[in-house]
Write a structure and sequence with these properties.
By secondary structure, the chain is of the alpha/beta class. It is globular and about 40 Å long. It is built from five helices and six strands, in the order αβαββββαααβ. The N and C termini lie far apart (71 Å). Strand 1 (36-44), helix 2 and strand 2 (66-70) form a beta-alpha-beta unit. The chain has one domain: Collagenase (Catalytic Domain). Helix 2 packs across helix 4 (116-127). The chain binds zinc ion (ZN). Zinc ion binds at residues 122, 126, 132, 144, 183, 185.
Length: 196
């Protein structure tokens, strides 16, 4: 009796997946979802403030399910930008309202010749839950330093925008949180040798 029940329960999910799988995979990401608003603070971002606002605008222009806005009061932001002297790095999201993401905009990448708006847009991509794709083309934001310093594109491509919209489609966190995971980006075309 117990054995036959086990066989039945194993069969049911398999049957369901064959009948509903196609329909659910094609559902539009932005049809009915409420827009998630994420607020950011640039109080410690110094000379990066203009690049940050432009990067946020570029993301807002292509996203449907999440919107980036400056925080109305310091300390209330869901994530913060700060200027540092090292390499850029960011909390790996997707960050949701009430979160505490941190983007460090490192001067070392600027010294290497990389575009400040592209850097800000890339690190913001991590806040939105995107991973690095250094081997990707300049048309991607998450290719980062990969295409070299001549690449100043700061607009996400359609696939990147679609992935972020999927990350926020449910309006709340749909995947398990990745606590305190930080992505550090070495914006350099040089190959580290380990010696000097
Ligand atoms: Zn990165």
């Amino acid at each position: 009796m117990i054995k036959s029940m086990a066989v039945l329960t194993a069969l049911v999910p398999a049957l369901l997946s064959t009948t509903v799988g196609v329909a659910s995979a094609q559902s539009a990401p932005h049809a009915t979802a409420a827009v998630v608003t994420l607020t950011y603070d640039t109080g410690d971002a110094g000379q990066w403030a203009g690049a940050i606002d432009q990067a946020a605008q570029n993301w807002n222009d292509v996203l449907h399910n999440v919107r980036l806005e400056p925080a109305s009061t310091p300390g209330s932001a869901d994530y913060v930008y700060e200027a540092t002297s090292g390499w850029p790095q960011s909390t790996l999201g997707p960050i949701f309202p009430g979160g505490n993401g941190d983007v460090q905009l490192g001067q070392q990448a600027v010294d290497e010749g990389y575009d400040t708006i592209r850097i800000a847009a890339h690190e913001t991509g991590h806040i939105l839950g995107l991973l690095d794709d250094y081997s990707g083309p300049c048309s991607e934001i998450m290719s980062g330093h990969g295409p070299g310093t001549s690449c100043t594109n700061a607009t996400p491509d359609a696939a990147e925008a679609a992935q972020v919209d999927r990350n926020y489609a449910a309006g709340t966190r749909a995947v398990l949180p990745r606590h305190h995971q930080v992505v550090i980006d070495i914006w350099s075309g040089r190959v580290p040798t380990g010696s000097r």
